[in-house]
């Protein structure tokens, strides 16, 4: 049976990344900037149908901004969601695989550009520094599929149960685990129940590392009101989880959330906040918080890293410029040497030890 060497997997990658690795930023906003119409229940996953070139370009933009990890366009891509739009289950599975293929293509193209470039940094701030790059296959919460904003409340109703959530996510997770991604990014997890569902799915023979990223609206608990400490403990107890943290949360809450997570896990902590705005489920748009100035969280990054964060990036409403600014604040990273025998030196893909 195959087992993931969690003791060295992420630590080796972080070591070769100078101690802190940079995650990419928001996807949907950038797709819209390139002209994509995302007013659809599939949201950014709509581009998997007919605008794959735009997804590839956004991945490249983030790599050229200095990102070490790019997240696939599968956050809102569910087999059930594609079927509801009139596609077959096979079509849905194909588009899940495609989300990973696009990211891997972008990584390959970026490495080609690095080999062809005579300099590491261009005058306009683009980064062409060859380095290990990971592809994280995104899995959004059940609330993301509902497209009713419930991933920001965690309220799935009294009828929700563990077996239903496992059944909803199972095939999707299996497809992504076998797609060629380096790890699975379980994102915007709003409650303990769904964290438990993801944890149990990973133990069903899924041979790929994962990270768990929760979201919070008060800086203490996850959005459902469940204890963040208890949710992080669920992630800590799963051997296949190689990092635990927070995404899509206002920057002002991140410091306290890092402190909470550190109390229950020794695994690497990841944080990729949103721009500081809040999502209005009724308006279906991001709105500025009343009385709170727009936050430039780049200024927080050093403090977060000092507190223990080792994977840092951005979520909704952040851009390649955000990631580029963070990159300038991070230590220099080795660009050409292999990570370890557990990692591919050319692609940067995480490998799994077998026993």
How would you summarize the topology of this molecule?
Elements lengths: L8 H8 L4 E2 L5 H6 L13 H4 L1 H13 L4 E3 L7 H6 L4 H28 L17 E6 L2 H5 L15 H16 L5 E7 L2 H11 L7 E5 L13 H10 L3 E7 L6 H9 L6 E4 L5 E3 L4 E3 L13 H7 L1 E4 L7 H10 L26
Parallel strand pairs: 1-10, 2-3, 3-4, 4-5, 5-6, 6-7, 7-10
Antiparallel strand pairs: 8-9
Helix pairs in contact: 4-6, 8-9, 9-10
CATH superfamily (homologous) name? Homocysteine-binding-like domain
Q: Which band does the percent of strand residues land in?
A: 5-15%
| Count of helical regions | 13
Mean pLDDT comes to 87
N to C succession of SSEs: HEHHHEHHEHHEHEHEHEEEHEH
CATH topology group: TIM Barrel
CATH architecture: Alpha-Beta Barrel
Structural class: alpha/beta
Brief rundown of the structure:
Pfam families: S-methyl_trans. This protein has 355 residues and is α/β, with parallel strands linked by helices.
3D architecture notes:
It is a single chain. The strands form two sheets. Strands 1-10-7-6-5-4-3-2 form an eight-stranded parallel β-sheet, with helices on both faces. It is globular. It is built from 13 helices and ten strands. The chain is an alpha/beta fold and 355 residues long. It has a single domain, classed as TIM Barrel (Alpha-Beta Barrel), CATH 3.20.20. It has helices at 9-16, 28-33, 47-50, 52-64, 79-84, 89-116, 142-146, 162-177, 192-202, 228-237, 254-262, 301-307, 320-329; strands at 21-22, 69-71, 134-139, 183-189, 210-214, 241-247, 269-272, 278-280, 285-287, 309-312. Helix 8 (162-177) crosses helix 9 (192-202). 37% of the residues lie in helices and 12% in strands. The model is unreliable at 279-286, 290-294 and 333-355 (pLDDT under 50). Strand 6, helix 11 (254-262) and strand 7 form a beta-alpha-beta unit. This is Hcy-binding domain-containing protein. Keywords: Metal-binding, Methyltransferase, Transferase, Zinc. One of its GO terms (molecular function) is S-adenosylmethionine-homocysteine S-methyltransferase activity.
């Amino acid at each position: 049976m195959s087992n993931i060497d969690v003791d060295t997997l992420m630590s080796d990658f972080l070591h070769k990344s100078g101690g802190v690795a940079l995650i990419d930023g928001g996807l949907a906003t950038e797709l819209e900037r390139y002209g994509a119409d995302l007013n659809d229940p599939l949201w950014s996953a709509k581009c998997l149908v007919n605008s794959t070139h735009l997804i590839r370009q956004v991945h490249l933009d983030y790599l050229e901004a200095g990102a070490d990890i790019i997240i696939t366009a599968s956050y809102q891509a569910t087999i059930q969601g594609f079927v509801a739009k009139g596609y077959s289950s096979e079509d849905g599975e194909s588009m899940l695989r495609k989300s990973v293929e696009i990211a891997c293509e972008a990584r390959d193209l970026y490495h080609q550009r690095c080999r062809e470039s005579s300099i590491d940094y261009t005058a306009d701030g683009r980064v062409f520094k060859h380095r290990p790059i990971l592809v994280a296959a995104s899995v959004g919460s059940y609330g993301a599929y509902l497209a009713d904003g419930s991933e920001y409340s965690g309220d799935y109703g009294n009828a929700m149960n563990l077996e239903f959530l496992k059944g909803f996510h199972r095939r999707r997770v299996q497809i992504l685990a076998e797609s060629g991604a380096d790890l699975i990014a379980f994102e915007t997890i709003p409650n303990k129940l769904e964290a438990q569902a993801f944890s149990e799915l990973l133990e069903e023979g899924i041979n790929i590392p994962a990270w768990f990223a929760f979201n919070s609206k008060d800086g203490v608990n996850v959005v459902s009101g469940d204890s963040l400490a208890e949710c992080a403990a669920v992630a800590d107890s799963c051997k296949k989880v190689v990092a635990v943290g927070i995404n899509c949360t206002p920057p002002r809450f991140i410091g306290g959330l890092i402190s909470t997570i550190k109390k229950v896990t020794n695994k690497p902590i990841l944080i990729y906040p949103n721009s500081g705005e809040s999502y209005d489920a009724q308006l279906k748009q991001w709105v500025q918080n009343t009385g709170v100035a727009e936050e430039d969280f780049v200024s927080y990054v050093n403090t977060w890293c000092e507190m223990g964060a080792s994977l840092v990036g951005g979520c909704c409403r952040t851009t390649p410029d955000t990631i580029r600014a963070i990159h300038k604040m991070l230590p220099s990273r080795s660009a050409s040497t292999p990570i370890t025998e557990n990692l591919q030196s050319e692609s940067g893909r995480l490998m799994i030890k077998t026993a």
